[in-house]
Specification:
The structure holds two protein chains of two kinds. Chain A is an alpha/beta fold. Chain A is built from ten helices and ten strands. Chain A has a domain at 1-78 and 189-235: P-loop containing nucleotide triphosphate hydrolases (Rossmann fold). In chain A, the strands form two sheets. Chain A has a six-stranded mixed beta sheet, with helices on both faces. A four-stranded antiparallel beta sheet of chain A has the order 2-1-4-5, with helices on one face. Chain A is globular, with a radius of gyration of 17 Å. By secondary structure, chain B is mainly alpha-helical. Chain B is globular and about 60 Å long. Classes of the chains: A alpha/beta, B mainly alpha. Chain B: The chain crosses the membrane at residues 12-39, 59-80, 92-115, 135-159, 189-211, 223-250, 257-277.
Chain lengths: 235, 289
């Protein structure tokens, strides 16, 4: 496993948010975490990138223990996080946002190559490179958030609700992008309310319900699971 | 009449230059730390006393003393970050109260070290640049204007063109998202405190030979700075510089043509008008305020 959560629990104050969650992300695969509102999907993802302290359990990345590390240290190990609501830097230009994603890197030539790569992948970002990020549409901001995460040259990409608030056409575009990124060898952890999309993209899926792991299995199997179909796919 | 207008404008440019240095530092600290630094006027005062101690008392060359003022007060800023603001992170009100405590400590230390009397220190130069019969500017004031211009340009370059400058702006706009890019928010807080405090200290050091120095001089400085950053839009560096220029011109002209008390009232009225007409300030945006 490239990224492994072993029995992690997270509390918000005295309230338990997730309990004994174990998740494995194999190299080069897309793993999804689905579930309803407040199930603990975002909490799980935020715990992975060090933004929430664990009440119990351990997180390993490439064999090294990373729980308890500050978020800015975890990025250095190769875990990039595209946060919920995109969280781009509104008053910075598109290019400044992207270059900030490469903050920790020293390999100048490779940074320029990767910037070119992001611009090729997202031509609209190239057109708007000198524009302030807050002036862009939601879909463009999501692309910027993904591009910014890619600029850290990560090995695993954590994505929190990339489809949220976007038009169906743009959601399709984002889905294609996630597949392309994965085909280049990057592992992806996808948190989604849009279970149809998530199960279509992922190799393996976990279902969270009120902070507990309810179900897990290959995405195609969960897609045919009766409970999942009724509760999350609306079938 | 033209001479008077030109002369008053030169005086206003001088005032704008050191007010900008103070206000920009205050905005930078507020942006990155989320704390309103009430001790900012006392950091200005500390810079002045560095020049008293080194230049007036120990004959150190003036510009060396100014550089020392920048560095010494910048280090005071680092001390504030470590001792006050870091433990009180996520508690902006606590940070504000702690900064009020720190300003009292600095005032008391200044009284202990130098006494309560006014300090007048020997002029750096008596030279005056004369443009016409009634239009002139003392070279000592030119030093302040030029240094402020150079330092503000350097800050602009740092923030817009360098990796750490981007990191600083990113932390100011969204600390959590910045951390996700590998930026240490503690590190950017330290940079912001060093620059913000250092600029206030440098403004105090540069103007030391031109003003009367006492341990309580910070009051008027912080009030001016508050007016300026509210007019400019809290959180906007460009706004702070622009508002410094506006405020300095209004204040200087009213002082020249009427009197100083009326000028202070006008400055506060200017702030009130901006708050009524555009509460986010001239350059501020609603989501950032």
């Amino acid at each position: 496993m490239l990224l492994e959560l072993r029995d992690i629990s997270v509390n918000y104050g005295k309230i338990s948010a997730i309990r004994n969650i174990s998740i494995g992300v194999p190299e080069g695969q897309i793993v999804t975490i689905i579930g309803g509102n407040g199930a603990g999907k975002t909490t799980t993802l935020r715990a992975m990138s060090g933004m929430l302290p664990l009440q119990g359990g351990e997180i390993y990345f490439d064999g090294k223990r990373v729980d308890g590390m500050a978020p800015h240290k975890i990025v250095a190990h190769g875990i990039a996080h595209v946060p919920e609501g995109r969280r781009i830097f509104p008053d910075m230009t598109v290019e400044e946002n992207l270059r900030t994603g490469a903050f920790l890197r020293k390999d100048k030539d490779k940074i320029e190559a990767d910037l070119e790569d992001v611009f090729n992948r997202f031509p609209r970002l190239r057109e708007r490179r000198r524009q302030r990020a807050q002036t862009m549409s939601g879909g463009e901001q999501q692309m910027l958030a993904i591009g910014r995460a890619l600029m850290s040259d990560p090995r695993v990409l954590l994505m929190d609700e990339p489809s949220m608030g976007l038009a169906p056409v743009i959601v399709e575009e984002i889905a294609v992008i996630i597949e392309e990124i994965n085909q280049r060898g990057l592992s992806v952890v996808l948190v989604e309310q849009n279970a149809v999309l998530a199960l279509e993209l992922a190799n393996y899926a976990y279902v969270l319900e009120t902070g507990n792991m309810a179900l897990e299995g290959p995405a195609s199997e969960l897609h045919d699971n009766e409970h999942v179909r009724a509760a999350y796919l609306g079938l | 009449m033209f001479e008077l207008l030109a002369q008053t404008s030169l005086n206003a440019i001088y005032a704008a230059s050191y007010i900008s240095l103070v206000a920009v530092g205050l905005v930078l600290i507020f942006g990155v730390m989320g704390v309103i630094n009430f001790a900012h006027g006392e950091l200005f005062m500390a810079g002045s006393y560095v020049v008293v101690a080194l230049y007036a008392d120990r004959m150190v060359p003036f510009f060396v003393a100014v550089a020392a003022g920048l560095i010494f007060v910048g280090l005071l800023g680092l001390l504030m970050e470590r001792a006050l603001f870091r433990p009180l992170r996520d508690n902006p009100l606590g940070g504000l109260v702690a900064s009020i405590g720190f300003l009292m400590v600095l005032q008391a230390l200044a009284v202990l070290g130098f006494g309560v009397r006014m300090e007048h220190i020997p002029p750096v130069t008596q030279d005056v640049i004369r443009f016409a019969d009634k239009i002139s500017i003392p070279v000592a004031r030119v030093y302040v204007i030029v240094t402020a211009f150079v330092m503000l340009s350097a800050l602009w370059y740092f923030l817009k063109r360098t990796r750490f400058g981007w990191a600083l702006r990113a932390s100011a706009q969204d600390p959590e998202a910045a951390a996700l890019q590998g930026i240490s928010v503690t590190q950017t807080a330290m940079i912001a405190m060093f620059i913000g405090a250092g600029f206030a200290g440098m403004a105090g050091a540069l103007t030391a030979p031109l003003i009367s120095i006492n341990p309580h001089m910070g009051h008027s400085v912080i009030i001016t700075a508050f007016i300026v950053i509210i007019v400019g839009g809290v959180g906007s560096l460009e706004g702070a510089v622009l508002a410094s220029v506006v405020y300095a011109f209004v204040h200087t002209f009213v002082t020249t043509f009427f009197d100083g008390v009326l000028a202070d009232i006008t400055g506060l009225a200017l702030m009130l008008i901006v708050l009524i007409v555009k509460p986010t300030g001239l350059f501020g945006s609603a989501d950032r305020a």
